[in-house]
Amino acid sequence: MRLQFPGGFAAHMMIGATLLLAACAQGEYRMPYQDGTVVDVYKDHVTHSSPHAYMYDLIAQNGASPAIVAAAPGWIRFIDDSHEEPTDDNNYVWIEHPYPFCPVDASRADWPGKPANYDSTCIPCNREFCNEWTTYAHMSKNSVRDVAGLSEGQWVEAGDFLGYEDQVGMADIGAHLHWHVAVIPPDTQPTHNGYYLEYVDATGIQPEVIPIVCHAGGQSVIWRFGVYTAAGCPTEALSPARSLVLAQPGPQSPVASVLQSIASISDEGVWIALNNPRLLLETRQVLARMEPDFHDLLRIGRARISMAELKTVLELFGKYERRGSAEVARVLVPIRKQLESPGGRQLLGIVVDGRFEGID
User: Residue 230 in contact with residue 36, Cβ under 8 Å?
Assistant: First the structure.
């Protein structure tokens, strides 16, 4: 699998920012196609849409009418498969997934096959809602309700048949599956062609998260330049294939070099967090707090942070270093030392509790 940066510094920075700031999904997801289907990622969480709208356009490479399956266990919440071409109205399915969080709503506290020890091993939800939802769009007319025999409120397991890949609705690239994972309130409604635009507009929150996906090659973030064979998640998950991040020609800014270094270990980084859900939750919380500062760094070349924020970031780096391979340490140790040094921070444009000198 090879990840190539599009030409131009801005695109490079955008990918680097995504890798640094992305909120990773906490649930376990499989490729949403029948086992053995070869899947091309036509657009990924970087190239599909605006920043933070982490979505995917997936195209099956073998067989007519490829079968779409549930990416994780959950409840069917919404179905609209009443449309056929030509139309701009999407057919779609929404599924709500309870794993791996502790229930915060009594109506969502039980489900088929729930482990007996789940309530004592689940991750506490630190907000009003934590459940992740998946969206599947552009599927064939009647393939969900009639062919798959599904209805709202029904429980499905990972790998259960949902319907067929198609190009119904706003599918300008032809037959494909639009798929994404989001963290949204339990009363959210599809208000715009199978999307929760009203919620996004009302809150200013882009709720999509980047999933770590099981496939025949292992378990990893999936990229536009990757081709994957669909498979379920094994009981003991396989290690992911490492993405190859190609070096960019010409001189790079210090920030760009740091971003590319972190991008080179992104697969292992999410793997480390995946195997330690509390570390993943801590990472998400830290990145959410640091996000405005990082946007300033990209936009105007400088960022102000507090000493407490810096200390938290350095501690987080240390946790990944201790859990990672020699390659992770090779990448993170120089970055950590740079952040510990006033001169290194100034080179990056980071000011800790002080006035930045040299940039108006």
Answer: yes
Q: For residue 140, is it within any domain?
A: yes
Question: Hey, which of 239-248, 250-259, 337-346 has the most confident mean pLDDT?
Answer: 337-346
Q: Kindly state the DSSP code that residue 107 receives in the 8-state scheme.
A: G
Q: Calculate mean pLDDT across residues 106-130.
A: 90
Taking Cα atoms as reference points, which of 183, 160, 182 lies closest to residue 113? 160
Whether 6 has a pLDDT exceeding 70, the answer reads no
The whole-number pLDDT of residue 77 equals 97
Domain count, the chain: 2
For residue 342, give every residue at least 6 positions away whose Cβ sits within 8 Å of its Cβ, in sequence order, or none: none
Which range marks the domain in which residue 151 is found?
A: 24-229
Amino acid 186: pLDDT: 93
Q: How many CA atoms lie within 13 A of 33 on its CB side?
A: 27
What's the start-to-end Cα distance of the chain, in Å?
43
DSSP one-letter string for 267-328 = HHHHHHHHT-HHHHHHHHHHHHHHHHHHHHHHHHS-EEE-HHHHHHHHHHHHHHHHHS-HHH
Same domain, 219 and 317: no
257 in a domain, yes or no? no
What letter does residue 90 receive in the DSSP assignment? P
